[in-house]
Amino acid sequence: xxxxxxxxxxxxxxxxxxxxxxxxxxxxxxxxxxxxxxxxxxxxxxxxxxxxxxxxxxxxxxxxxxxxxxxxxxxxxxxxxxxxxxxxxxxxxxxxxxxxxxxxxxxxxxxxxxxxxxxxxxxxxxxxxxxxxxxxxxxxxxxxxxxxxxxxxxxxxxxxxxxxxxxxxxxxxxxxxxxxxxxxxxxxxxxxxxxxxxxxxxxxxxxxxxxxxxxxxxxxxxxxxxxxxxxxxxxxxxxxxxxxxxxxxxxxxxxxxxxxxxxxx
Length: 265
Hints:
Layout: H1 12-21, E1 26-27, H2 32-43, H3 62-72, E2 87-88, H4 90-109, E3 113-117, H5 125-137, E4 141-142, E5 149-151, E6 154-159, E7 162-167, E8 170-171, H6 178-189, E9 197-201, H7 202-210, E10 214-219, H8 225-232, E11 237-240, H9 252-262
Parallel strand pairs: 3-4, 3-7, 3-9, 9-10, 10-11
Antiparallel strand pairs: 1-2, 5-6, 6-7, 7-8
Helix pairs in contact: 1-4, 4-9, 5-9, 6-7
């Protein structure tokens, strides 16, 4: 499905059906054991799973995290369900897309500065790229990151208006907040304004939200940090989805729906 024309944007019902068929939502590939393991590690204070956010001692009970994930992501809320299939509620995915669209609409109306970044270039790169392109056409300033930024043993580069981590000529999947910290520190060091809005995922979104920036984040069912941040009001909205399905083209209808809802398609 093309993403450039509002006429081709799916209806809500069509998008829900597509999300389930492509396993972006519904019965997703991430197993229950992996979800619960990540919830437990976050609760135990493993900062790898905090995504640059600061939770203090507020989320030390795995069952409390499960309750938030059931409410905001749609995983199975039964604490006795320990292995096998888990789910993302496609209705929650579309609800979150609608909330994100409202933020994008506001950004376009105010000609805001918007920063895009991804730790999942194999899945979500084109979602971010297409959204950046649409916002630029609507009059927004897409933030250009400083040159020469380094983080986590690699370089922070920008491709197609989207910041990513690169090592050895390869774009890296990363949950680390350090690349986003390098970008924001670099902007401040150069005396340039910080973004009005950030659209990102993983630690890129968590770091931005922790620093007080308005942020939209994409997150999988085994990545609870951004959902907790949304529940606390630190992050504006978290979009639940499987963030690396069989083909990145499966995300095109989602992007079309988002841009159409934002009025920038």
